[in-house]
Amino acid sequence: MGEVIFFILATMAVGGAVGVVLQTNPVGSLLFMVGTLASVAGIFVLLEAHFLAAIQVLVYAGAIMVLFLFVIMLLNLGHDYEPDVKRGLGAFLSFGVVGTLAGVLAGQVRGAEENPVYQFFPGPEGMDRLLQEQGIVGAIARPLFTDYVLAFELVGVLLLVALVGAVALAKKRA
Amino acid sequence: MLAESLVLGALLFVIGAFGVLIRRNAIIVFLCIELQLNAVNLSFVALSRYLGIEGQLFVFFVMTVAAAEAAVGLAIIISIFRHYQSVNVENFSLLKW
Fold it and tell me: Among A27, B32, B34, B55, which is 20 to 30 Å from A35 by CA?
């Protein structure tokens, strides 16, 4: 059952990603992206990462995509139907680069499940036990506020810097 | 499900890279970068099923940085649009050698 749902979601995610690249209208591209993000959130649920699935829908598909939509509407790009895809040598070189990348990644994925290094780690059974004991949010929150608390605080500073930077950049020159 | 998830992550990453290389609209290039970040997140979550909860923590940080990056990047695009009246990356050749 899980496998069937996984393949439906994976097909939707890949179809959405292809739509993002091929769609000429930016708003259409954005809607395909929301579909891809929602499908990936579904796959997160299948991989027992429920908290991240919720965050993915709320923050990514909700907030960040709406920010993109605001900018498209603000700059009045929504009706730009002119194809802007590169042709000729540029497209050929892109195919070459992407093909090489795909080859390298495929070589890494093969035999991923039989890697002997996994015996030193908890594995799916250990992860299930952890989630059972501490709860879905607790399992993430405990290390986040103990071992990684410095990184957590620094991310807060980063968000503040990004906020100030975005306002400073987008403000009209006086 | 680990191998299938890694294959899907690689596929999404490659499609995103192709979009970055082939599109000229700066906003869509940016959208494709977000797609690549999401593909990496998927790989992190798939591996965290085997290697412990730290992978999910990393995804949490990647999402935060992606949000900050989207805010700053879109501000830069607005600022460039004011100057050139366009978001076509071929017009942005001031730093081109």
Answer: B55
